[in-house]
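Researcher: Checking consistency across runs. Here is Geranylgeranyl pyrophosphate synthase 1 GPPLsu again:
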Amino acid sequence: MSTVNLTWVQTCSMFNQGGRSRSLSTFNLNLYHPLKKTPFSIQTPKQKRPTSPFSSISAVLTEQEAVKEGDEEKSIFNFKSYMVQKANSVNQALDSAVLLRDPIMIHESMRYSLLAGGKRVRPMLCLSACELVGGKESVAMPAACAVEMIHTMSLIHDDLPCMDNDDLRRGKPTNHKVFGEDVAVLAGDALLAFAFEHMAVSTVGVPAAKIVRAIGELAKSIGSEGLVAGQVVDIDSEGLANVGLEQLEFIHLHKTGALLEASVVLGAILGGGTDEEVEKLRSFARCIGLLFQVVDDILDVTKSSQELGKTAGKDLVADKVTYPRLMGIDKSREFAEQLNTEAKQHLSGFDPIKAAPLIALANYIAYRQN
């Protein structure tokens, strides 16, 4: 997988005009494909990639708005500008939602981690999915904030001595290093509770039934069948020699993928998507949820703590099973490429222009460097 930065141009070509590209299950390498429960292989650079209805959409991180190739004018999506705009909107909404009030210490702790930066990938996925199905940003913003609050809670708790025992997060000392373990636990609890309150109270212009449905999706994604399930199995798997790809899939799809999936599904529900659209976006999100963690596993062993903004190599130290450990770095990178391609296949029925943000976000997840 080639590395990229904020000067690249990534043109999407994922589909045959008449249907899906070659199924992963038809390849001949005996590697496990978690999402399909089948063997899979990797398309080599020499193989011709299929053409795509999205081939006219480029995620271009420049100030250009259009380019011409021959007689065909190609629409350009400015991903850098999009990310900046969405991140600013989300940060302002988070700042306004969690105010500094009494008791001061708990709110300082909540705000310390919530406003510490971060890529805001989950809120962007929520907002992009909402807009893809015809909704407005304002409709999904409370849900976008809610998933970021819950994500922040998971980071605070994950860093605790009783869990991963980490000292660095987003380039800063972890919450418990600043406020103590007791306050850090309570700050995470408070963010979790407030996420649901904020979503229920602040979502406007959406039928109550859809708000309830979205809240149910979010709750399930983080409970004993979601994030918590993945975390428990992850802890239970530390140091075991017989953990295979199927168990690793379970960990990643639940611990990381479930909240990413919920982010997209919430946006689609609140934006007024049909059941078919919601399920197509769920499939897209499931692929990028696993993709996110595969890339995270790779970065953990290839980047420094300074580059990552968190402690590098901690999975190795904790003797955790990872994709690089089971498959090697090269095959893990190839698997990430396949997941990225498959994720975008699930967007084939949507307007390519409206789908451009999600295409670009999938590429961003695949090629991120921290």
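Researcher: Does this match what you'd expect to see?
Model: One thing to look at in this run: The longest strand covers residues 72-78.
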